[in-house]
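Fold this sequence, please.
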Amino acid sequence: MKERRHFIRIVYQAPAQLSQSGAQWSATLKDISLHGILLSCPDGWQPGDDPEFQVDIVLPETDVHLTMTAELVAYDPQSLRMKIVNIDIDSISHLRRLIELNIGDDALLHRELEHLADLAEDE
């Protein structure tokens, strides 16, 4: 199978809250990239008609929240795969720093950011 990912994903565990149409669920972040997230599938969660969710991720041992709108791409009983469709400036700054610290390669991070900018221009 051809690898379709364009962004490096880092394994990172953190608590997350999903909300959609007044419903709310607790989940755990499993991994994250500049473009998407992988969450544990919350107990009692069922897919709805709207693919967009509000997601709030709290970075452990900090007061940093990553707040975003994410679109459900795929799911199974263990996980939800989501594409980030909107993220505020503070959250993207924190996310960039988190990825920078975890990949340890400035050149690779800059390539990722350029690719993200290219995708935004194509939309």
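The first strand starts at residue 10 and ends at 20. The chain has one domain: 10-122.
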